[in-house]
Amino acid sequence: MTASGNTGAHETGTSQLLSFDGSAEAIRRNSQWMAGGVNSNFRLNISPTPLVIERGEGPYLYDIDGNRLIDYYLGMGPMILGHNPAALTEAAKTQIEHGILFGGQTQVEAEAARLVCEMVPSAERMRFGGSGSEVDQAAIRLARAATGRKKIIKFEGHYHGWFDNVLWSTAPAPEAAGPREAPAPVAGSKGQLTDTSDTLVVLPWNDLDLLDARLAKGDIAAVIMEAAMCNAGAVHPLPGYLEGVREACTRHGTILIFDEVITGFRLAPGGAQELFGVTPDISTFGKAIANGFPVAAIVGRADLLDMFSTGGVVHGGTYNAQPIAMAATVATLKSLQPALYEEIGVTGTKLMDGMRAIFERQGIRAVVEGFPQIFHVAFGLDQPARDYRDLALMNRQAYVAFTTALLHRGVRALERGAWFMSIAHDDAVIERTLEAVDGAVSQIKADGAI
What we know:
Blueprint: H1 8-12, H2 21-30, E1 53-57, E2 60-63, E3 68-71, H3 86-96, H4 107-119, E4 125-129, H5 132-147, E5 151-155, E6 200-203, H6 208-215, E7 220-225, H7 241-252, E8 255-260, H8 271-276, E9 282-285, E10 296-300, H9 302-305, H10 307-310, H11 323-335, H12 338-361, E11 366-371, E12 374-379, H13 388-391, H14 396-408, E13 411-412, E14 418-420, H15 427-446
Parallel strand pairs: 3-13, 5-6, 5-7, 7-8, 8-9
Antiparallel strand pairs: 1-2, 2-3, 4-10, 9-10, 11-12, 12-14
């Protein structure tokens, strides 16, 4: 079947449910070469099967079964311009004609760096990297070098990459997490070095008193956080919380790191720090910075970032500032104008409000919360979450049944509850999505899944 074929459910709402037999078979076949048939654990065990994609265009993906799907994964967040935008592809094609990798500097990386520094409030200096996990490690190393301290504070439910020293308490089981006032660090993987937990302190987010009390001991090099908690959910900081964290870190000589790998260039041109008006010492970025190209960045105070060049702090990477990726970065950042955020604000709000109305009419307990550019749907909650432990009460099994029913109706949404929006998701796409949501809710109710 061709990629333009199986669009019935997408076009008419619920008249034809889509099949994914081709993807399921390909995953089984490809597992003889790739562990699990995938190249990231975050793509494993998706219901009814991980998908094998042929191409993307605007708000749509086309899979090997010929299904056209409205996509709210958006590559796990990067594709704020939608799939295959013309400006980006043209920039990449032009650059590839000049070369791929030089082991030296280019003018295009300097232009990309200038745009980042002009757009991001905390960016006096910056360096490019290849992934969010990498630049988070660079930020932590920099903070330890600057302060001479070892420990960092991270928060339950916040994700800062898959390396041993930070993959703690990202999704801890409630029975393992310990008391809220003093959470037990919970490792995220077998094989993880458990003694790395000695270098961190885990706290609940959105609790300024607990944070301030721990900082007062004077041994914390850095506080690292998502400025809006958007990996596990889409949780707003409480009024005054970020401002209080900023003041407390300054008072106690601790470096404040905002992990903006998800929120950066998505919530605003300058990220969550621009939206909330709080400037950290160091920030990390990825995902939307280059609309799908493997680009990340660490930015911050000049005196801190200059330690990479004059302070003996090592940061490297063969593919850092790879020219084709830099051309894509420039094209992306130049596209992120105020009108884009205004437009996504309208369509994202329309989708959130429409989903709330459907859930209420169908008698579904659910909270739709977050931002128009990225929001989160939690079944089983009565009010917005304020931290990970609130989110842990959501009915995840029912939500997976919901996303499975959506997929069969031509809408692809993350099983963890996040919905990413792009400029390509117009009113017509939102209306078709809401038709699918209504049909999916009816189905899971009839099946007794909720």
